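> Could you send the Potassium channel protein prediction when you get a chance?

Sure thing. Input:
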Amino acid sequence: MGPPLLYAALYLIVATLVLRWDLRRGGEPLPDFTETVWSLWTLLVFEPTEPFPHTPVARAVFWLTPLAGLFLLAQGVFKIGASLFDLATRREVWTSIMTDMMNGHVVVCGVGHVGYRVIEELCILGEDVVAIEQNDAKGFLEEVREKGVPVHIGDARRDELLEKVGAKRAKAVVCATSDDLANLEIALDAKRMNPSVRVVMRMFDQRLAGKVGGALGLDQSFSTSALSAPLIAIQATYEGVHAAYRIDDVVRVTAEVKVGASHAEATVMDLEERLPCRVVSRRKNPDESFAPVRPRDVIRGGDTLVVDTAAVDLPAVRFQLG
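Output:
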């Protein structure tokens, strides 16, 4: 029960006791207790049902009660007006409504550079996302809100806020703040609230990330520097590399390869049997977009391919296709 209703209930109880005391003291007819409460309630909402009393204190109560009702009414009108015209209040109401409607969503804690990119990719995948950011002055908050993502301002380490963003019914929680200890605390709290939730945690130290993730039963922990280092190293060496990732001790890349004009026609299946790569997509002309390929599609000279291969095999693949 909100404070206005609580104040109204307290006023009714106190006013009823005072009114009955004064009526009894003045020798006035004393109605039933519930009738007294009802008469004061109707007076509070400007619908009096009892005649004006003769004792002074009871008269004062009858004068003050409509004023109290007027005060409560004015307070309600003010709150409604603030909700309609105040941007921050409107945004807070919208954020709460949208969050309450979500189920099986992803909670992203931290809307910095990493958190914003994670939210961007999740939106592309069509996932429902709720964000938490401690600093209301972060530069990416407006960009995230423009994507229709509700953003809650506060400390994600607080249980109340995690419950407010629906961590108990979320399918994943991404801890992407710049504080390793905060990420760890958020991850543990999320698992405690919802043992089935998938938790992905950012940590700057990749070795510590692996140890913590394994010891605490977290689903995934990552270091942005460890993820980006292979890509930066490969891009510094080769052109046309879109992505790099590590599987065990092998770094694999996704890169563009131009098929030489004199290269003999071959199907995708033939190329994959002959070369240490997998063809992901193809672009026939520079003004076209890359399109997925099928095993029997014919590759011709002048085509541009996107291939997935081990980084050490990329020069050989380019040489064979060029």
